[in-house]
Amino acid sequence: MAGAIGLLTTARALVALAPVAGVAAALLNPQLRQTATQWLRNGAAQRAAALYLLIPLTWWYTSDWSVWRHEVYRQLPLIGVPLAFAVAVPLSGRQRFGLGVGFVGSTALLGLATLGRYLADPAWAQELIGTGQNVPSVTGIFHIYFGIMLALSAFWAVSLSREARAGRLSRWLLLGAAAAATLSLHVLVYRTGLLAFYAALFVSGLLLLFRRPVLALALLAVGIALATTAYVSLPSVQKRIGATLYDINEYNAGRDINQLSISRRLAALHNAQVLVAEHPWLGVAPADVRQAMDEQFSWQTYGLTQENRVMIHNQYVHYLVGAGVAGLLLWLWVLITPLVQPGLRQNPYVRAYLLIFAAAALADSLLEMQIGFNLFVFLYGFLVVAADRHRQPSV
Question: Counting C-beta atoms within 10 Å of the first and last residue's C-beta, which end of the chain has fewer, N or C?
Fold first, then answer.
């Protein structure tokens, strides 16, 4: 609950305390000795631990020691949170359902409140969108992660409404929350959230194609109809698409891109490609990515002033720059492995979470900002580690 409330309100203290409480819960398990082996046998927890070890094991070629020490500490939840969900007395089905309903309901309400901010002054909101900016959420959640949370809530609310413990009223409320999250995401036009939403919808349809072809085709048809309707009927969507195309054209024409979002990201990606070519196998060291990018920007500026030189907005490329092919394969191992295990792939919550994060990681380095890291780690423990534990034989 502390983690969920902290994510929704950007209360850092609650988010920071949540892993500590989780580890304490694991250590207070009256059957700790018997259940400790579950952590060692839990494949999801092992993969998260391997992702953490990527930082300390690069000590021998890192040069930015202050960042290295900070990351060794900052990424400890990759160990602590999976430990909690693998070893602590597990939450009951009712508790998990309640937390899920609370998360999607709260996110949907925040989406509607932010939508109200948009409707209160549409001209101001559309001016923001036209310049590549976003209407800020009412609780100050960064727009990229708020878009991801809205996309997750839209999928999870539908799945929760199909649970046996959901009564008739709660089913309708959950479907209403799904509609509210979807509507807010489209009207506010959070690009990363929309990318993740439609990618997850499309891939879900493909996964169903051979098992339930009628449902798969219906899902794909709904996605196409929703996207078409949004473009035709929502001025904010038209404004965002126009601004995005203008942004890309300015970059291709070699004009001033200091105030353009997509163009600055493209410049960062091109500089990142140079670093990948120079350090393909082990990268420049995860702690040295920012320093290496700053040095590369000093050679190829793309006309950007110092304050407008952004970091890599792609988690896959970020791992490739920081830890080379080895780091990228490790990140893909974390994301893809649950999707090829039938017991986890068929879990709608796990599937939606992984598909949405995998798509969103194409547009941002999700683990580099604290809110993105926390969102990934808490949901990974709550969903993937817990589901993997449920698959293990009882001890």
Answer: C
